[in-house]
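Batch job 17 of 40 flagged for manual review because the log was empty.
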Amino acid sequence: MHTREEQMKAFGRLLDVLDALRENCPWDKKQTNESLRPNTIEETFELCDALMKNDTQNICKELGDVIMHVMFYAKIGSEQGQFDIADVCNTEADKLIFRHPHVYHPSQVGAPEPKPLPYVPEEALQTEKEREFADAKTSDQVLQNWEQIKLKEKDGNKSVLSGVPSSLPSLIKAYRIQDKARNVGFDWEDKQDVWKKVREELDELEAEIKREDKRRSELELGDFLFALINAARLYKLNPDNALEHTNQKFISRFNYIEAHSIKMGKPLTEMTLQEMDALWEEAKQQEQES
């Protein structure tokens, strides 16, 4: 691995390359925040895809693309006299220090070289709340403190759920909404009780479907999915990751069916459901053996 000096040099090199491209490349010259946004979304999803596949080589590559986009937005901000990459880094560092009083003392926000809490005696913490935040010893305690601290920030969230981006995909948004509510104490006392809610929502969904009420059925489907995501959260299962694993599994098995239909010279549209099911089971068996 590289030294901190080598890492900083590499970061500076990328900044220099971006400066040169912004000045000399016709495409880079004309980019704006708005024009870059779709590319940024695409790059982020490509990184997520590499992460799901645990593809180390592509994780490294896609991280570079994402970092470049961060730098590009900071470059545009600098050109407009709004902020530069140093402001971005310092703002993030200050935010992290403020939100981690169990590691840093609150008075160290903005300090050039903040020191971990062990360097600060407990009596230096001025209020009972500061002592409570600083005493976080588990991941769950840190997350609970996190939401409360964000509400205290000058430019922080105005409400607990305002920190959930409206543009998040619905499945991830539901998980984040529930998680944020949990961090301020709004959650099931006994996680096993959630299954009663899941079954209740499923019964209501089935009832509306039997009535052939499409609008009510859609609403009840949303309630059922929300309850199921809640159950996944309570049992520390990530529903987005779980669904993506199933997506990839389905793609792999269906591709197996399609490949064999080509070998057989028989289009999928001419295969019977029984023939496709048999190939599906073959694909499933191969997965279990590999």
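Reviewer: the log was empty due to a logging misconfiguration, but the result itself is present. The chain has twelve helices and no strands. Unflagging and moving on to job 18.
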